[in-house]
Amino acid sequence: MKGLRSPASSILASLFVALLSRQPSTAQTPPANEEAAVRGAVSTVMRGYMASKKPPGAIVGVSVHGRRYFFHYGKATDDGAEFTPDTLVEIGSNTKTFTTALFSLAVARGQMEEGEPIQKQMPDGFKLEPLAQKATPLQLASFQSGMPDDPTNLPPKLEMRSIEHYTTKDFLTWVAHWKPAVPPPAPYKYSNSGIGLLGYLVMNATGKTWEQQLSDEIVSPLGMIDTELRPTPEQRQRLARGHLTDGKDAPVWPIFAWYAAGGLRSTARDMLRYGEANLGHPDVEGKPVPPALTSAMQKAQTPIYPLPAPAKAHQAMAWVVTDANPATGMASVVWKDGGTAGFSSGVVLHHGKDIAVFVAINEASQPAPGLGIDIARHIP
User: Fold this and answer.
1) Packing angle of the helix pair 368-378, 34-53 (nearest 10 deg)
2) What is the pLDDT of residues 198-213, one digit of tens each?
3) pTM of the prediction?
4) Any idea of the CA torsion for 30, 33, 35, 36, to the nearest 10 degrees?
5) What CATH number should be reported for the domain whose range is 7-25+87-325?
């Protein structure tokens, strides 16, 4: 999409791509004090938070140069089970980064173009309003389409919003009647429906379902055995219990028709595998990461435009890239948050330190990515 980046944004993007292109070595024997340093950083951040906010529980996973550390707090279930690296949680909008990686792969393979009208890849039978036709897949990926956060005609009850009740046809029909308030590109507006639509465009362009692409392109190559849209009965036994902000049990997050924006369940162990691949590691647990996937992940993390003040960050494809501050020595980090009715989670990538952090809390509306950023910055 031409004309999107300012000169300053273009310079930042170039520097960021250079940083992403560094290929870290695979995990080696850790320095004697590394585990103590990681434990100290996590403790510094998490103990005060847990004591003051008192959420039911949390799991923190940290990867330093491919070496992994896990820390648990509180309880994962109402019967008192503790979190483990293999406890499943709802990762909510962290799902969006998987979808933008799949989009980047489709672009690299010539199956889509970033700046083409979204009408080109709309499923048959759904024609957009004239102004909506001017939106592009990149604008969906970077929240500049102007599309609302969620469809505006949803049933009031959460359980009635699942794909069984508010169907794919319902969603795409709503999209077909959507009229942007301003011609795209619109000012920043976070949108679940926009990334959800992007998932359908990628499916149409590639001829493969989102779940099949997820498995073939990301989950299987990275050995993410517990990352699922629809967990198996065995995996559901390992699913933590989510809680509302008042501490009461939360309903299980439905699979919406726009599931490509927020439907996945995963574990801390799997999300560190994912984080290491996003850091550019050539292999994860000794298994090579496909170079095409590495390139797609790097493309998805590349800054596109500055976010509105007071944020000191740039928007990428779903990811947020904080601006570095040379005056204070504050390095740039890449992050994404996820929230459901009962969970808060965040993925943080500190490329300068080759650190990935995943934080999941089984209570809604908690600052998981902020905690992850603090942890990454506290690790020497």
Assistant:
1) 150
2) 999 999 999 999 999 9
3) 0.94
4) 180
5) 3.40.710.10
- Alpha-carbon distance 179 to 203, whole Å? 23
Report d(CA 352, CA 349) in Å as an integer: 9
Beta carbons within 10 angstroms of residue 99's beta carbon: 27
**C-alpha dihedral sign at 79, 85, 90, 93:** positive
Fill in the DSSP letter of residue 67.
Answer: E
Before 117, cis peptide (omega within 30)? no
- As to burial, measured by CB atoms within 10 angstroms (0-12 exposed, 13-18 middle, 19+ buried), residue 153 is exposed
What are the C-alpha distances in Å from 105 to residues 94, 193, 200, 202, 300? 18, 21, 15, 10, 10
Question: Per the omega criterion (within 30 degrees of 0), is the bond before 30 cis?
Answer: no
Helix (H, G, I), strand (E, B) or coil at 95: helix
Residue 4 sits at φ, ψ, to 5 deg, of: -85, -40
Cβ contact 377:371 at 8 Å? no
pLDDT tens digit sequence for 131-190: 999 999 999 999 999 999 999 999 999 999 999 999 999 999 999 999 999 999 999 999
What tokens does 156 get? Answer: 């009031």
Dist. CA 372–CA 60, nearest whole Å: 8
Enter the tokens of residue 139.
């604008």
| Nearest residue to 161 via CA among 126, 200, 192 | 192
Are residues 301 and 103 in contact, defined by beta-carbon separation less than 8 angstroms? no
- Token pair for 378: 């506290």
Place of tokens 């036994």: 237
345: helix, strand or coil: strand
Residues 96/301, Cβ–Cβ less than 8 Å: no
Burial 334-347 (b: 16+ CB within 10 A, else e): bbbbbbbbbbbbbb
Q: Where are the domains of the chain?
A: 7-25+87-325
DSSP, res 150: S
Q: Who's near 175: CB < 8 A, 6+ residues apart?
A: 126, 128, 132, 147, 193, 197
Q: What is the DSSP string of 183-239?
A: PSSPSP---HHHHHHHHHHHHHHHTS-HHHHIIIIIITTTT-TT-BSS--HHHHTTB
| 3-class DSSP assignment, residue 129 | coil
